[in-house]
Amino acid sequence: MHPLSILISNDDGVFADGIRTLANEASSRGHKVTVVCPDQERSATGHGLTLQAPIRAERADELFSNGITAWGCNGTPADCIKLALYELLPKKPDLILSGINHGPNLGTDVFCSGTVAAALEGTLEGIPAMAVSVASFQWRDFTYSGKLALAIAENAIASIWPKSLLLNLNIPPCTKEEMSSLKWTRLSIRHYEEQFSKRVDPKGNPYYWLAGEAINDLEAAGDGPSDWPSDVAQIDSLGPSLTPIQPDLFWRGDLAQLPEIKIKIN
What we know:
The chain is an alpha/beta fold.
């Protein structure tokens, strides 16, 4: 494959092991790599944009391998991609990668994921984009995950990558030898127990800490081929999960099921 121009971002920040591993792996394969990511952790910021404060970016090349151009930005992951595409890069990249995220981005959690939002910015601009996550907050060996992500992206680029397609890759926290085969998956429906932990500050005032635990439901999944496993089930079987997503959120159910709206305003 000819060298690609690759833009890489994340939501864990410029000092995260995952993004450095992914960027260094892409560079080692001969691709031209630019990193534009938050200067600190911006997890679970969803597709938020900074509108009420200036966005600043500083060079951070020294954190990466030689030949990689890197920027740390004080904005959200979506800010980073927008800034890169419209100000920092001389032209649009061939590919956008977001990750490797420290923790899973499975099922309906993609709606609040900064990692997925950064990739989605690329999809909205018609650029092939993939979000990459290791499904554990404790796992820290990203070497094989980086190789797998680049191999998938290179294969997809060499094939046909529709402009509306966002790929969401989750990789189980295990060694290559323990890992089962990669499969296409459906988005699971994620539910949580004990969403908030109520606490009291030193002055006696209550406050709340969002600390829900995901229910590991292997069957609950949205639309997609019925013979595809859910992404949660695939990770549970120690297999990498690759889910095709598109930004079009239009209702795909039976239009006859839509509520009847009869409004009379005097």
